């Protein structure tokens, strides 16, 4: 599997864009950054979007991608996959005909540019060639992380989460883990309140894994604290830990 980082920041500043991870050109994990970095042809290759939760920094690329496809008069349907809660939030609060058109009915209700596909939780399902498992994580809104597997290679993406349990039990053998660390360790109070991790909290989470993956890719940092988080993670001396940067590509 090829992993391309479109955005991996917990905020938006020049050079720091919100979460989106493209797998093999066609499967997108979260959609915080899409059209700002992908060419037209690259955007048209997206078949499926797996959404972890309804927060704006993880979904905001979806309505604009849909608009790009419709304006280009392409007959394409992108499958937007998430829990029923997340899909309901997209329909009620984002593409509701007020904030943005309902692209599940455009250009026609029969052949729309977006289709919402509810996913099961804690039970694997197929998306094209991939086996996907969604597991709940700890965040102020309903949220899941995803394990995506193909040909014996698995990637686990936590999405946004505070300290959590179940997803670590289901992790299994991983080629890579994408896990969030949003705040430095002295901001644990706000991290816990908002369902996020610090370097110290990450250390406790990783101890729940029976075996550390060879790659532990850190995402969702608040850019204002980037240097402090980087130093604190280095001090943990965990093998395989790497801070993600937008544009990074990994062959897993
Ligand atoms: Zn969030
Ligand atoms: Zn977020």
From TrEMBL:
Pfam families attached to this UniProt entry: Lactamase_B_2
Limits of the Metallo-beta-lactamase domain: 17-196
Protein keywords: Hydrolase
Domain of life of the native organism: Bacteria
Chain ranges passing through the membrane: none
A GO term for molecular function: 3',5'-cyclic-GMP phosphodiesterase activity
Database matches in InterPro entries: Metallo-B-lactamas (IPR001279), Pdiesterase2 (IPR000396), RibonucZ/Hydroxyglut_hydro (IPR036866)
SMART domains in alphabetical order: Lactamase_B
Any GO BP: negative regulation of glucose mediated signaling pathway
Protein name from the UniProt record: Metal-dependent hydrolase, beta-lactamase superfamily
Organism: Citrifermentans bemidjiense (strain ATCC BAA-1014 / DSM 16622 / JCM 12645 / Bem) (Geobacter bemidjiensis)
């Amino acid at each position: 599997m090829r992993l391309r980082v479109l955005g991996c920041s917990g905020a938006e500043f020049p050079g720091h864009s919100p979460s989106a991870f493209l797998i093999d050109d066609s499967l997108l994990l979260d959609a915080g950054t899409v059209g700002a970095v992908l060419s037209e042809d690259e955007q048209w290759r997206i078949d499926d979007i797996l959404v972890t939760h309804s927060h704006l920094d993880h979904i905001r690329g979806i309505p604009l991608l849909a608009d790009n496809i419709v304006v280009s008069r392409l007959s394409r349907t992108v499958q937007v996959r998430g829990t029923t809660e997340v899909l309901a939030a997209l329909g009620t609060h984002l593409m509701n005909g007020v904030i943005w058109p309902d692209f599940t009915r455009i250009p026609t209700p029969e052949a729309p540019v977006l289709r919402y596909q509810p996913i099961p939780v804690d039970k694997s399902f197929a998306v094209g060639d991939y086996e996907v498992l969604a597991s709940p994580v700890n965040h102020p809104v309903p949220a899941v992380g995803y394990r995506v597997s193909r040909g014996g290679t698995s990637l686990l993406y936590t999405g946004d989460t505070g300290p959590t349990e179940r997803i670590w039990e289901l992790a299994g053998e991983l080629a890579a883990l994408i896990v969030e660390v949003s705040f430095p360790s002295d901001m644990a109070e706000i991290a816990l309140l908002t369902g996020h991790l610090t370097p110290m909290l990450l250390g406790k989470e990783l101890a729940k894994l029976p075996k550390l993956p060879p790659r532990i890719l850190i995402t969702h940092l608040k850019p204002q604290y980037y240097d402090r988080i980087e130093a604190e993670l280095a001090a943990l001396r965990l093998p395989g830990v790497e801070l993600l940067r937008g544009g990074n590509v990994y062959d897993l």
